[in-house]
Amino acid sequence: MKKETLENLKNDLSSIKVKTFEKKRAKRKKDRESIESDIQYLTERIIEKYELLKYDLGIKMESHKTNFFIFDVENIIRKQEEKETE
Predict the structure, then answer these.
(1) In angstroms, rounded to a whole number, what is the distance separating the alpha carbons of residues 63 and 82?
(2) pLDDT the model gives residue 36
(3) How far apart (Å, rounded) are the C-alpha atoms in residues 37 and 28?
(4) What is the b/e burial string over 26-63, where b = at least 16 CB atoms within 10 angstroms of the residue's CB?
(5) How far apart are CA 63 and CA 75, in angstroms?
(6) Contact residues for 32 (Cβ-Cβ < 8 A; gap 6+)
(7) CA-to-CA distance for 72 and 60, rounded, in angstroms?
(8) pLDDT tens digits, 41-86
(9) What are the angstrom distances between the C-alpha of 46 and each of 10, 11, 28, 30, 31?
């Protein structure tokens, strides 16, 4: 993965982290559901846009669990950054 692509992935991942924080703070169930819908959309978009299945075949199965998804993507980023420094 190119350096620029990694930076874009980091930015997109941080938007999911922000949405996760917003969801925790949301008072109304309707708001939480709306934010969860946004998170799922962003998750799917990230998987497709960055072709993450090339890097982790299980990422699609874990995508509905936001914390696991974030952890998996951070691992992909870390591994790709390590490859760049080699």
Answers:
(1) 24
(2) 96
(3) 14
(4) eeeeeeeeebbeebbebbeebbeebebeebbeebeebb
(5) 14
(6) 23, 26
(7) 10
(8) 999 999 999 999 999 988 988 788 999 999 999 999 999 999 887 7
(9) 10, 11, 27, 24, 23
